[in-house]
From TrEMBL:
One of its GO terms (molecular function) is monooxygenase activity. This is Nitronate monooxygenase. It is an enzyme of class 1 (oxidoreductase). Its EC number is 1.13.12.-. InterPro entries: Aldolase_TIM, NMO. Keywords: Flavoprotein, FMN, Monooxygenase, Oxidoreductase. Coiled coil: none annotated. It comes from Streptomyces poriferorum.
Length: 344
């Protein structure tokens, strides 16, 4: 378990999630391409949750460097995120990089079902396979291929969507299948009370993205982070307007001139960014999020954000976000003294 003993006594479902992750708090920082940097992952893990470094479209050398940099920055357990449908032929190289660079057991978090051979290699190497899904049926498939934890992504989550149900409906539908592995909910989780409420529905913890975009260690562009802090509950929308480079998935983003136009706007050049060490143009409608390297009309880029963005009110150190979740969860447990057999 990472971090000092804070005296947090978790109810059984959440305790099971923390034990599975090897963390104090059953909270996973999402693996957001370009945003989930080694600095962010290390800060979250050192604070007692599970930090995640995103491999996204990294080649083998870059992926190895990202894993090694995260390992140098924290002694705690951390995760790596891969996206098979985006990585394509790079996926095998990313896995080789992870297995070669790992100096401890890692959580390998796959957005969507990975190829069966990929899952087998992760298991055989002694790492924990976690699979993010959007349907109860895909949760079944993930467990069948050896996933030791499943993330259930609802449509209230920011980013690209794997299903069509809000997270609470998806959680209820999946929990009744009794899959025998911890289920982590993704979508709109920002407060400790959210965690406790989801545990009552069968969750063992949560995966959080938006809250960690708006942190000092995040790789997000400053204007993107600031936009999150002033956004309200109605300022996100699910759309298909950012599909260049990642087709076939709707996504939840902050509203912008791109999402609010009556018809799709022309895919003209709006910005430049850096991908895999190379400077690349960003056309309007690109799936690329505005990172620190972006220059141009970042307000027209894909600023991914979940439906709970209204709870983000400041750009904070990642450790502060984790500490706030811990304190709020402790308070929620004490307030609801009857929950889970009176756990305090």
């Amino acid at each position: 378990m990472s971090g000092a003993d804070t005296g947090l006594r978790l109810p059984p479902p959440l305790a099971a999630g923390a034990a599975a992750l090897g963390t104090e708090l059953p909270v996973i920082q999402a693996g957001m391409g370009g945003v989930a940097t080694p600095a962010l992952a290390a800060a979250v893990s050192s604070a007692g949750a599970l930090g995640t470094v995103a491999l996204y479209k990294s080649d083998r050398a870059l992926a190895s460097g990202l894993v090694a940099a995260t390992a140098r920055a924290t002694p705690a357990v951390f995760g790596v995120n891969v996206i098979p449908e985006v990585a394509g032929t790079l996926l095998a190289d990313q896995l080789r990089a992870v297995l070669d660079a790992a100096d401890r057991e890692l959580v390998v978090n796959s957005y969507g079902l990975p190829p069966v051979p990929f899952a087998r290699e992760v298991r055989e190497a002694g790492h924990l396979l976690m699979v993010q899904v959007g349907t109860a049926e895909d949760a079944d498939a993930a467990v069948a291929m050896g996933a030791r934890a499943v993330v259930l992504q609802g449509t209230d989550a920011g980013g690209h969507h794997l299903g069509t149900l809000p997270v609470r409906q998806l959680l209820a539908r999946t929990a009744e299948r009794r899959l025998g592995v911890p289920l982590f909910a993704a979508g709109g989780v920002h407060r400790g009370a959210d965690l406790l409420g989801l545990a009552a529905l069968g969750a063992s913890g949560a995966l959080c993205g938006t809250a960690f975009v708006a942190t000092e260690e995040s790789g997000a562009h400053p204007a993107y982070r600031q936009a999150l802090t002033v956004a309200g509950p109605g300022d996100t929308v699910t759309t298909d307007r950012f599909s260049i480079g990642w087709p076939g998935r709707v996504h939840r983003v902050l509203r912008s001139p791109v999402t609010e136009a009556a018809e799709p706007l022309p895919a003209q050049l709006i910005a430049w960014t850096t991908v895999m060490g190379a400077r690349r143009p960003v056309p309007r409608g690109s799936a690329a999020a505005p990172t620190l390297e972006a220059e141009g009309r970042v307000d027209e880029m894909a600023r991914y954000a979940g439906a709970g963005v209204g709870h983000v009110d400041a750009v904070l150190p990642a450790a502060t976000v984790v500490a706030r979740l811990r304190d709020e969860l402790r308070g929620a447990i004490r307030t609801d003294a009857e929950a889970f057999g009176g756990a305090r």
